[in-house]
Amino acid sequence: MPLLDESVTSPTETSPTETSPTETSPTETSISLEQLLSQSEAKIQSLEQAHVEEMNRREQVERELNEARQLLQLVMDTLPEAIFWKDRNSVYLGCNRNFAEDAGIGIPEHIIGKTDYDLAWKEEESQFFRECDRRVMLADRAELGIVEPQLQGDGKQAWLETNKAPLHDERGKVIGILGTYQDITVRKEAEIALHELNQKLERQTVELSAALSQLQQSQLQLVQQEKMSALGNLIAGVAHEMNNPVGFLAGNLLPAQNYVRDLLGLIALYQETLPNPGEAIDSKIDEIDLDYVREDLPKLLQSMGEGIKRIRNISTSLRTFSRADQEHKVAFNLKDGLDSTVLILKHRLKADEHRPAIEVVEQYEKMPPVLCFPGQMNQVFMNLLANAIDALEESSQGKSFSEIKAAPNRIMISTQVSSCASQAVIRIKDNGIGMTEETKQRVFENLFTTKAVGKGTGLGLAIVRQIIVEKHGGTIVINSELGQGTEFVIQIPLETA
Ligand SMILES: Nc1ncnc2c1ncn2[C@@H]1O[C@H](COP(=O)(O)OP(=O)(O)OP(=O)(O)O)[C@@H](O)[C@H]1O
Ligand SMILES: [Mg+2]
Hints:
The chain has helices at residues 26-78, 97-103, 123-139, 185-273, 279-288, 290-321, 334-344, 346-349, 374-396, 401-406, 437-442, 460-471, and strands at residues 82-87, 92-95, 143-151, 157-168, 174-183, 330-332, 359-364, 370-372, 410-417, 423-430, 475-481, 485-493.
């Protein structure tokens, strides 16, 4: 609406048709002044009218504006989210009721001019909020779903999921930031509780599986110890029972040799004294080939002596093998352990109708007795040698007797002192089937076996590892190539008595 009525002429303006004052009479002048006055009054009136209208219009606009503002506040206050907006310097310009309550300022109007440091939150939380504002305004890009903690006006430590977006003026320049958030404390606490529960469960699972594997190990060892001690008892019993008859033989052999010598001397004396004993005696002498008996009988008795010595050695070996371990380590000659184990396995090394005997090549470097648990070391040798024989038997399958004879099955056993002189090194090597890479990785696992059901339990090497690594602080290494053979290299600290 125009503020001035353009039809009303200004009193200073002069119409070109009006008569010049020099030509006007006083009466005419008075009339024209009156006209001018009434025109001015009309103009003032119309101006006053316009002013009143303008005031009304302004009031209306203000009313409408207030209503719109109230409606906007109502809408914002009704929303479940907390809403706030700030200027470029992160100074608050407004917020809704939810936000005002969280901030501990009572009503939304109180937020104007405040910064985060004036509100309920912790200082580090305020710093975080402002850093986030700065990032959003600088990048001119909204950040959504920011999960952040917030200490609220009522002392509650809440978790928020916040969205922040830059605010622009009409030219697109960033002038501030608009933020909304939801209180996700319940969800977050449930998540945290779940996470903690998961961690607890994981810990318990780890503990349980450790306990289970410990239990398996102990069970395994018990079974093996039981087996070994049963075997040990049997062998010790056999060795003991052998001792008595061997004792008789050994004890009687010397007198028997003396008697034979005496009797042969007596015969010689008879022959000298009675050179012609008669036909019956001569023909008996021929029949029994007396000269040969006289020559052979002492040799025969001597070889019986050798046999007795051998049986004695076997008996000693058996007793060595069946040694029960004490609480502490004792000095033990590794060669004796290996010899006695080979002896126990002799029946498996012998030739049969399918293959010739397995050759055993032994190379023992001079070494002092080693402090160890002899019964357990024998168990290690037993498992490794039994595995080597299995590997050779498997590689012999499908080959003819003569083929095997041309490239004989062989087990090499050696002991030596390591170059640094601190370790006893034991090598057990076969030229059997060898291992695949996967088998090599898994051989020390409990119950891992590639053998048929009933043939292997998959415990042997798990026990070997336990005895060498855990009980003796040693190491065990495998060198193996599929189709070529396998070598186990054991090292144990060379603690001597
Ligand atoms: N000398 C070897 N040559 C080739 N493979 C071997 C040799 N020694 C062990 N293995 C492989 O390692 C696996 C595990 O050996 P381990 O002695 O632990 O169990 P097993 O011999 O199968 O059963 P057992 O419990 O009766 O000893 C064997 O099944 C075999 O596949
Ligand atoms: Mg085995």
